[in-house]
Each structure stands twice: as C-alpha cells, then as structure tokens.
Specification:
heterodimer, A: mainly alpha, 15 helices, about 0% strand, B: mainly alpha, 7 helices, flat, transport (chain A)
Amino acid sequence: MYGFEALTFNAKDGYLEALVRGYRSGLLTAGDYNNLCQCDSLDDIKLHLGTTDYGNFLQNEPSPLQVSTIVEKCTQKLVEEFRHMRCQASEPLATFLDYLTYGYMIDNVVLIVTGTLHERDVQDLLQKCHPLGMFDSIETLAVAQNMRELYRLVLVDSPLAPYFSDCIRSEDLDEMNIEIMRNTLYKAYFEDFCQFCQKLGGTTAEWMTDMLTFQADRRTINLTINSMGTELTRDDRKKLYPAVGLLYPQGQQGLAASEDYDQVRAVLENYSQYQTIYSKMGFGETPLLDKAFYEEEVRRSIGSLDLQFHYGVFYAYLCMREQEIRNLMWVSECVQQDQKARIYDGIVYIF
Amino acid sequence: MGITEVGPIAFYTWVICSISFVLFLYGVNISSTSDSFIDWGYLYQLFAFVDPYLLSGLGVSMAIGLSVLGAAWGIFITGSSLIGAAVKAPRITSKNLVSVIFCEAVAIYGVVVAILLATKTETVNSLENGDYSASSKAAGYAIFASGATVGFANLVCGVCVGVVGSSCALSDAQNSALFVKILVIEIFGSALGLFGVIIGVILSAHARFKDE
C-alpha cells in the first residue's frame, strides 16, 4: 500500500537499509578525488585510499602496483559488501538483490562466449568475469558451439534460463549473433525486472521504474548508436529494444529509423528528461555521451537516498560503487600513464 | 475513479459503505414505526443493558493494550534502523536511544491512564430489574471512551515517533548536525499522544459508579 511501507518495511529490511546507507557514507567525496588527482604514482594513490573507507585493502600487495590490482581489490570490497547484504536479506529483498546480479551474469556469459570464439583460455576469461555475475556452471560455457547448445548444456540451470526463450536459434555463434544475444537477454531482463518491481509496489516500484526506465532508454540509445552502419536491419533493431522506458514505443520507432547522430538527437529532443544527454550529442562523440549517461545515473541514484523505506537504495548503491570503481580506474590509469591533463575529464563526482 | 484505479478492495468498501448509508437514512426516516427496515428502538435495547463493567474493562484494556502496541511498533521501526546505521557509525547509538525512550514514553502514558481508569471502577449492586443506575452506566461509557481515546491516540503516536526516530538514526549517521533538528520533530510527534491522554483524563474525571 503506497505510503504505508513505513509501518512494515523495517520488520524485515530496516537493518539492511540502514546498513547500505552506512556503506554509502564510505563513498569517496569530491575532496578525496581532488587529493587522488594530485598523486604522482600508484603508491601515492594507495596511501590516499588508506585514509578513506577503503582502509588498508592494498596493504598486502607487492610494491610495483598495477592498475588492475587496484580495480580488482575495489571490486572485491563491493562484492563482499553485496554478499553480506545478500546473506542477511529476507524475501522479497533477497530476490531483488538477485535480480541486480543478473545483469552481470549476462555480461559474463557474453564475455566468455566471445572469448572462446577468439580461442582465449577459459581460466583467463574467468578471471576477467565480474564476481557478482558468477553462477555454478559458468566454466562449461566454453564448450557450446551454438545458442541451442549453450542453452541446453549450461544456461538451463542458471537464473538466466527464462530470458533465453527469445534467442534460441541453431545458428553458430559469431560476433553479430553474440551481440544480438546480449541485447535480447538484456531486453528480457529489463522487462522482467520492471515487472518484478511493479509487483513490489509502493516507493520501490515508483523509484525503480524511474531508474529502470532510464537504464532501458540508455541501452536503447546505445544500441542505436552502435548499430549504425552495421548489417542490422531496422526491424531487427526494433526487436532488440526493451519494451520499457520513456522511449517505448514512439521514440523507438524514430530511433529504429535513425541512421546518424542528428536523427537520434532529433528523436531525443522530444523528451525533455534527457536534455542533459542530447545536449552533449552535438559533438558527435560517444565517450562524451557515455559520461553524460554516467552522470545522469549518479544523479538519479543520489535521489534515491532522499526517500526512505524502499529497495531502490540497494540498486543506487551498486550504481554509485560501480561508478566509483570506474573513477578510480580512470585516475589510476591517468597517473600511471602520466596524463595528468586529462585526469578531470573522466571523473564523475558522486558527492 | 474507475475500479481499475482504486483496486477491488477499496471499490467494494465503497459499495458497502454507500449501501449501509442509504439503509441508515431509510431506517432513520421511519424509525418511529415498528415495521421500519431498522428498528432503532429495539437496537437501543441491546446497548441499554450492556454491563458497565464490560465497558470499563474494555476501556482499561484498550488504554494499556493499544498504547503498548504503538510503543512496541515504534521501537521496532526505530530499533532496526538504529542497529543497521550503527554498524558504520557506532557513535550514534547512545544518542539515538532518545528515540527509543520517546516511544517507550507512549507506553508509560498508557499504563498511567489504565491505572487511573482501573481505580475508577468500583463494585455497585445492580437495580432490581437487572439494570444499573444512570450514574454507573455513564461511568462505564466514560471509561470506555477514555480508554479508546488514549489507546488509539497512543497507537498512532508510537508509530509516528518510531518512523521519525528511524529517519533520525539514519540521518544522524550521515550528518550529526541533523540529530537535534530531527529530535524537535520527534518531540512534536510525541506530544500527539499527550493530547489523547489529556482528553482521556478529562473524560473519565467525573465517572462515578456509586450514586452520591
């Protein structure tokens, strides 16, 4: 019942909601980033991170520090916190948190299948996978030759199985098919997750619908831009768009027909919510667009903290942590490659 | 507003309420005759012979029961948030006990009023026809009304203080300057229960079972 979550929410989820807000206060602030940007070496970064919530997480690492080590350790911290919350959660929060990991699972499946296609070692690929998106039979993904096998041998037991119903074909896996599979899976995932959040009702439904709308639209726009000039036909493209989001269905009609940035921009101009995004498109550069999306995501995530008694904070926390890891990766890369001039371009300040 | 917008339960509640209201008006209009749809004269008999001790007992139990329910509900809303927030900011625990104490105060109001009401209840003999004197009946109703007032006022007051207390714990963990500001809101919430207590005490002040 809308507005009455306050009465019953805390019986099951009050502790975790407060806990995730506690974790949130450990996120790096603009001041921390300014300090990090002054660093001259990765060891300086390690020193600075030691004074923040990260603590001594790099203490046992051997001295020539790698960027990948920092990112790995940060991810590990996120994963530990997430797993801790997942263990404490009761239904329906537990299912909600599981839903958050499905996106990572899809990415991992695509990563391994693509890697196998290029004959990379499975163990190396597994190292690259996001730990939140692991499931039991993930190692055996490499044996599959086409999608039907992929589904029948491996994914039928994974939580992703229901999402596969739309993309079981006997065709061999190639780059194009894998990309189509990724987008079909994401489409099914968004629609399912949206439905689940609607079922939860109340503030959770309100905020999560808003956020998932944005995420779905972001995927739609990125898909449009990435598929320009490829052999993907207009109808195929339309089939991959998620059936949720502000752009559904009118905007997607327009996007399906778009062949260059100006047309995409023209479609987006009908949606004043995305003003911050299409205003960046004039330059026609994808990296700028990515940053605009990240900034918008963080802005919306912070908005979730203004509300209480809803599950959106868990999703928002995950988004903000991911962004922080991306920021740290950017800062470390810039410091290591001595590109201090560009260091401020890639940071999305969270607080 | 269509049925799809308000949901089936709300819709049927509306239907039942409107039908009862129509029946009520119908009954009132021709209440003087015995063949009316609702015989109010007969219905009154049901209430006229309710034992005042039943009413006073209900009053006392509502005063304490609902107050404790409100207080307990408030404490669990505050408490679970407080425990979670204290994991990362242990300094807030002792300060935010104030929120729990505010919830507890609601239960204390209930106890005080329940004791007050219980002492008002005295043994009197019934009249020859099994009825009780007007003064006893009035006392029964007064104690019942007083208990209901205090009980429900404290129930919602406890929940209110609990919800604000939970937000207080969360915001204090992020920014300790907010604690005092939210505490003021909590005090206002806590005052709501006192209003119920005042009216409850006044209601039962003149209740006397014995004719003087």
